[in-house]
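For reproducibility, we list the full input for the IPT complex.
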Amino acid sequence: MRFKLKLCSAMWLCLAASSGAAAVRAADAPVIASSTKAVSWDEHSLMINGHREFIWSGEFHPFRLPDTNAWRDVYRKMKASGFNTVALYFNWGYHSPAPGAYDFTGIRDMDLAIRMAEEEGLYVIVRPGPYINAEVSRGGFPGYLARQTGVARTMAPDYLKEADDWLTHINAIIARHQISRGGKVILYQVENELFDTSDEHRRYMDHLIKKARADGIDVPLFHNSPNSLPNWVPQGSETYYTVAAPGLDLYAFDGYPGGSCNEKGEVGAHNPAPNNGIYSTTQPQIGSLASPKTPGFAAEYGAGWFDYWGSVGNYECNAKRLGPGYVRTFYGANIINRVTIHNIYMAFGGTSWGWMPASVVYTSYDYGAPISETRQLRDKAYTLKQLGQFTQAAEPLLTHMDKAEPLYPTSDKVKLYHNAGPAGHLVFAIHEPHDGMGDDAFKFRLTTKAGSYLIPQQGTLRLKGQDAKLLLADYGLERQKLVYTTSDLQTHLQQGATDIALLYGRVGEDGETVLRFKTKPKVEVIEGLATTVYDAKTGDLRLNYQHKGLIRLRITGDAAPLLLLIGEDAETQKFWRQETDKGPVLQRTSAIVKGAVWDGERLNLTGEGQTAEAIEVWATAKTLTFNGTPLDAHSTASGSLLTSYLAEPKAVVLPDLMAAQWTIRWDSREADPAFDDSAWRVADLKVSAATVPTQPPPGQPVLAMSDYGFHQGDVWYRGRLTARTTQKKLELTYGGGAVGLVQVWIDGRFVGQNELPGGFTYPKIPTVGKASFDVDLKPGTHQISVMVRNMSHNWDLFANEEHKEGRGLISASLSPDETQRFTTPITWKIQGQGETMDPVRGTFNNGGLYGERKGWHLPDARPDGWTPANVTAAPPAPGTYWLRTAFKLDLPKDVDTQLALVFGDPTQTKTDRHTRVLIFVNGWHAGNYVSNVGPQNTFVIPPAFLNPNGANTIALAVTTDGKPGNALEGVKLVDMRQAR
Ligand code: IPT
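The corresponding predicted structure, in tokenized form, follows.
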């Protein structure tokens, strides 16, 4: 059967796929014994070494942060924000420039990427492909696959040979980090979003599953079904709708139901949060219902969205659309739907530097994620922290609960979901419909072992705007009995004799919390306002309050004394929690606390602050330090230590690049008829491995760059021809990706250029262009030079070989005029960036510009041949010229200073200048600027690209048609973020 995607958000996916295959029953392949005991599961949750765990994960791509120190910063910020797991894609093409050649050193050290996550206390979900999509060029395939005739992601022998080689390499690294061998890798993803479930793809999946097992992968295997489709479930769970993959252990789905901002940069109407598990009512059923014996598992759940060339710059907007309200409603819905393995995409997006980005995106992959490209925590990171701490504190309940009696709110604008398990009850309150934005007050009757209540008994319980609440009842709050609360729980812990609990709610909203005591407890209000009523008959202590500031109560009853902290969001979002050798510790500060380690009685905190910050610490410590600085603390009535930390980031003095000495050097030498191309490869292939639309026309040689082993950036062609009659028309077909460019010279004269537009890829924007030039070639021999800027290769989302669409020239026809189509034969030579790589910076760093081939981008490029320049002066000629400057930095030590390069006016997303720049910082290709397309003109420089205390170089390869109006705008070095 075939079914259309019904569940898609308002995105390009809706246009896309339908399942191609019949539902499969038994498969031909034998079932392979699944995981070792280290990771087991049932329908409720994963169990790690027998212990139920709520997997609260975020996605991170080490290849988008070419700075191994910064990896640790991201991991620590993730941990601090409440994540207990990181999911990592590995990008095959990033490691392998040529068949059989692999590099896992330096920034490509994936053993280190996993090891660091382990050191920071995160579980690891690995996603090695071979195909990953991820908005990277060719979806992670190496360039050389574009030379293969076998169809990728099938059993084609040429493809499988290389795919297996990749897996052998990456699996060896993964295998030794598995939890079964003392590491923290708990789950392994096979392939990525294989929409089509044809027999061929099932054989391919089966092959990959067996390959993983043969390589020693013993943790559970899963596949991420696109768009919540119920495909690729474990064998035995297949239904009329679903396709099984024998040997897969878990079913997982991907979903981006939150949508994205519109083309005008407006947040737009919110989508309703779907039920992705036990409350799903859609057919086919998704989430835990598609696979009733495995835990609900969101392998990717939107935490932002990518942005495209020519947009209005939507990252900040997407961060807002998928902001705190989205986090509470959509992720909250997942929690009540028992999605207990929850990975958000992305936790930190990063930078698609060099030629890494796929055609659908530009350099910044900020994604509107909770951790921005500058490694700043956005608002929603703090909402995620509240939820993350909750999933860990309430883990026994969340990982073992089932649907309980339906609840009926007094308002039909509110919907309540009710789960219960051995550890208590969970009520999820959300608007009805789920995208409701009203101000809806409600009450509801809840009956648990602890009694039957009309909630709230006093004050108002409401949902206002995009909001949802996760409410607990009949719940063991450490040594206390919680009857119910209309506040959300953030965390609870024990410190010696004392229990501490942290509750929160929207500012100004009423809250009601009922605790149970045998005898009347003593209630001290340390700070804030709360009323208490004790009912000796029931033993209920009812607290009523407004969520405003931070209320502090000490309640001393028959169990341990309880410090109850109840705050508005902004207050409880300042709380950080770490697990230490001596149990959990808690801090309250607007600085970020990333770690807490004991040294005897001294607690050493690490983190980062941006201003002077108060720090309040709950720990049985005598003394405190923060980043090594001793803190002068005094104890408070709340049983905490209060101190302050002077973050005091020193003002950074950055060089004014516009006042610096620049030099210039001409690049496009290949345009000169006298240029020596004797060493270049003759373009003489007859058949291209490129997909059909980009085959050369009959009689012409293959020109597509990949067939000659050139894979990214700029590629040059030099042709020779003899015209019998006057030639009037030159027509070129070229593959450039979104925003691609072709420039043409004949006999040394510039003929013109053609640019492909930016835009959103689905519905598809052109990635192959046609350019037509009027020429006037008299009979005789001529020389023609063509430069194609290949902005990137397509992905292969639908496994249809799109990644092989040709790049560079596809065809070139020179004819006497429009009507006479006889084409003068041209013999071509080609030159570009081959299947080699800069041993440090990698294969995506460079294309094939003359200057790149000669190393002009490198910091040690020789000064001869460069002359003094004015950066904003008119371009010397059509083509490419280089601008270079050297500057010194003296950044303060132990301050994390994040710099960026800004072109022109950062408040404008595009200009009318047709100016393009390849940006090199100390030889590292930091990004691509296209002034007339935009939106990006601020380029975050990964810290490791810079020498913070010493000499640095910037080299800009500027490409224009030579018109004075297309001169480069100014360029500045700016400080984006400082923390110490
Ligand atoms: C899903 C991919 O698995 C992931 O690699 C990335 O491309 C993400 O989308 C979008 O950023 S594909 C899914 C949306 C069909």
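The chain is about 10% helix and 35% strand. Residues 1-35 have pLDDT under 50 and may be disordered. Both points were considered when choosing residues for closer inspection.
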